[in-house]
């Protein structure tokens, strides 16, 4: 797990890769953003959330990244510069590391537009995390999502916003895990 200060001391700008709620709600100041993907990871609803999208009794399900040589995950990379760097890292460290069980990696981010790749920082919840939930079927995950909400809102909203992002910005990408959970969730909803 790399030390954030080692990354930031030498650089005047830093890219941060968001693959979950950061794609619609970055919550920190940034200079510019790009849609694209990283390779070697798949996005999975295997992480628990007992604060933003759930509570201790009914944890929600949110995404993390799982290593998979053949996979790629789409999201948004945000460039932070100058004083934005420390501010964004402070925010992300609080947001992601309150409970521990996260690793930070530098990964190659490949923009969708025909532009050169950049190195981006990514936060990944691991199975060491106290509220890591692990693999489950789309139906099981949907059953959890449909009943969970937390301080930020309903777990269903989180799922739908992520699915909407993929449809809007990466329409050619088949994200079977995401869309099968969305379909299973819709089938459980009364309206």
Verbal overview:
- With 191 residues, this protein is α+β, with helices and mostly antiparallel strands.
- 30% of the residues lie in helices and 34% in strands.
- It contains 5 helices and 5 strands; from the N terminus they run αβββαββααα.
- The protein has helices spanning 4-9, 83-97, 138-145, 155-169, 176-188; strands at 13-18, 32-49, 60-81, 102-111, 118-125.
- A 5-stranded mixed β-barrel has the order 1-3-2-4-5.
- Strand 4 (102-111) and strand 5 (118-125) form a beta hairpin.
- Helix 3 (138-145) crosses helix 5 and helix 4 crosses helix 5.
- The termini are far apart.
- The model has no long low-confidence stretch (mean pLDDT 91).
Kindly list the characteristics that best describe this protein:
single chain; alpha+beta; 5-stranded mixed barrel; globular
